[in-house]
Amino acid sequence: MELKALFEQATLDSKTLSEKPSNETLLQLYSLYKQSVEGDNTTEPPSNPFDFVAKAKHEAWSALKGKSRDEAMQEYIKLVDKLKSN
């Protein structure tokens, strides 16, 4: 199966996990997904200093700057597979 198909399957699988992942793992899933689909984060940081969720998401995605889309997809698939096996 090609990488994109595996990634799309992992995306579907992430929505049907038996247990909700920790907030840290959810951020990791979010940032890897965004890097896989959109590449490097070019958006402005959130303007509301009290929107901690948006800030955390922005920072997590920005931390992956320079990681290739294929590499991000592979890491996303690996993380979802790990979560499925728990």
From the structure above, extract its key features.
86 residues; Acyl-CoA Binding Protein; 4 helices; 65% helix; flat
Q: Can you walk through the features of this model?
A:
The two termini are 24 Å apart. This protein has helices at 3-14, 23-38, 52-62, 69-85. Helix 1 (3-14) packs across helix 4 (69-85) and helix 2 (23-38) runs antiparallel to helix 4. Helix content is 65%, strand content 0%. The protein has one domain (3-85): Acyl-CoA Binding Protein. It is built from 4 helices and no strands. With 86 residues, the chain is an all-alpha fold.
CATH topology (fold) name: Acyl-CoA Binding Protein
Shape: flat
List the helices and strands in order: HHHH
Provide the number of structural domains: 1
**Could you name the ranges where pLDDT drops below 50 across 5 or more consecutive residues?**
none
Please write out the topology:
Blueprint: H1 3-14, H2 23-38, H3 52-62, H4 69-85
Helix pairs in contact: 1-4, 2-3, 2-4
In short:
The protein is mainly α and 86 residues long. Helix content is 65%, strand content 0%.
